[in-house]
């Protein structure tokens, strides 16, 4: 009987210690969730001047919003600079984000927030695909009013963290009313 109590006590202690180790692996010593390692190493395709501007946008995220940079690394593999036609090619493996010159020219804060916005589209697609691997991802999962609304909310949070102007924040807050996502990629001026 005494041996049985000792064994049960040892099993309880082992379970508690095991739970503590699992919790320790999930949280840093400061009680914050441990960040996942980035899934992709970003590849930037474009001329040297726009590559510099892209790196400035990435550096801004790194210095003022590193958790959002990790988010970009996780969901975007390629940033392709183009004259126009910004958008996220979520269905490509690896996922490619096309950025038009007007987006880059709008400034570093804006460009940084757009990268996070586009990464969120990739997240929407990836999460659905992970949950339903044998199904085709419906377009409304990563595009359309609800998907864009979520991406704009994320973009707004990033812009706040980066110190964007009230005018920029108001623009993002109201952008959902423009139906901009209905413009085909090849017809986008941005």
Compact overview of the structure:
The chain is of the alpha/beta class. It has helices at residues 2-26, 48-64, 66-75, 101-105, 108-131, 139-142, 145-162, 166-174; strands spanning 43-45, 78-82, 87-89, 96-100.
What does this structure look like?
This protein is of the alpha/beta class and about 190 residues long. The chain has 2 domains: about 1-35; about 45-185, no CATH class. It contains 8 helices and 4 strands. The chain has helices at about 1-25, 50-65, 65-75, 100-105, 110-130, 140, 145-160, 165-175, and strands at about 45, 80, 85-90, 95-100. A 4-stranded mixed β-sheet has the order 1-2-4-3. β3 and β4 form a beta hairpin. It is globular. The N and C termini lie far apart (about 75 Å).
The tally of structural domains comes to 2
Q: On the 0-100 scale, what is the average pLDDT?
A: 85
Task: Name the overall outline.
Answer: globular
User: Can you count the beta strands?
Assistant: 4
Radius of gyration: 21 Å
The span between the termini is: 77 Å
Largest sheet entry: 4 strands, mixed
């Amino acid at each position: 009987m005494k041996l049985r109590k000792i064994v049960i006590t040892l099993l309880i202690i082992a379970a508690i210690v095991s739970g503590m180790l699992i919790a320790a692996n999930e949280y840093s010593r400061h009680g914050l969730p441990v960040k996942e390692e980035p899934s992709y190493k970003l590849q930037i395709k474009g001329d040297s001047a726009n590559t510099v501007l892209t790196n400035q946008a990435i550096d801004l995220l790194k210095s003022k919003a590193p958790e959002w940079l990790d988010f970009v690394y996780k969901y975007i593999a390629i940033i392709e600079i183009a004259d126009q036609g910004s958008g996220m090619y979520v269905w490509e493996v690896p996922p490619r984000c096309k950025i038009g010159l007007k987006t880059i020219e709008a400034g570093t804060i804006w460009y940084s927030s757009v990268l996070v916005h586009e990464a969120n589209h990739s997240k929407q697609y990836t999460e659905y695909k992970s949950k339903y691997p044998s199904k085709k991802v419906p377009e409304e999962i990563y595009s359309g009013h609800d998907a864009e609304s979520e991406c704009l909310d994320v973009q707004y949070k990033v812009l706040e963290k980066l110190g964007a102007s009230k005018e920029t924040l108001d623009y993002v807050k109201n952008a959902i009313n423009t139906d901009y996502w209905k413009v085909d990629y090849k017809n986008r001026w941005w």
